[in-house]
């Protein structure tokens, strides 16, 4: 299973193994990573699963969807080029070693 490292806004690192096919949001909740709220439970309707993904993995993550991009305009923390909704990113072998920064505010 790939390893993903979540980094909280305070800089604490949590390296976890992630089941392929699950969303990164689901992994964060399952592993009790603080800071990912996910109010809509993965429906891409709340933007409280917003995270900053390692730009080196952008191609492996895949392109951002139009709806996801629209929702990222409503994040509580600033949108950046590496912003994604973690509920819309699926774990794959190609994401092994990726870091995911959790914003200070969701
Ligand atoms: S969990 Fe609501 S947008 Fe991702």
From TrEMBL:
CDD domains: fer2. One of its GO terms (molecular function) is electron transfer activity. GO terms for biological process: P450-containing electron transport chain. Keywords: 2Fe-2S, Iron, Iron-sulfur, Metal-binding, Plasmid. Its cofactor is [2Fe-2S] cluster. It comes from the Bacteria. Transmembrane segments: none annotated. InterPro entries: 2Fe-2S_ferredoxin-like_sf, 2Fe-2S_ferredoxin-type, Adrenodoxin-like, Adrenodoxin_Fe-S_BS, Beta-grasp_dom_sf. GO terms for cellular component: cytosol. SUPFAM superfamilies: 2Fe-2S ferredoxin-like. Belongs to the adrenodoxin/putidaredoxin family. PANTHER family: FERREDOXIN-2, MITOCHONDRIAL, FERREDOXIN/ADRENODOXIN. This is 2Fe-2S ferredoxin. The gene is fdxB.
């Amino acid at each position: 299973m790939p390893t993903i490292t979540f980094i909280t806004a305070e800089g604490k690192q949590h390296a976890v193994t992630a089941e392929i096919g699950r969303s990164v949001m689901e992994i964060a909740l399952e592993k009790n990573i603080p800071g990912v709220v996910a109010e809509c439970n993965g429906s891409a309707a709340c933007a409280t699963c917003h995270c900053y993904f390692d730009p080196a993995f952008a191609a492996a993550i895949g392109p951002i969807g139009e709806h996801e991009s629209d929702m990222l305009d409503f994040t509580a923390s600033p949108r950046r080029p590496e912003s994604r909704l973690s509920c819309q990113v699926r774990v794959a072998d190609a994401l092994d070693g990726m870091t995911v920064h959790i914003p200070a505010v969701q």
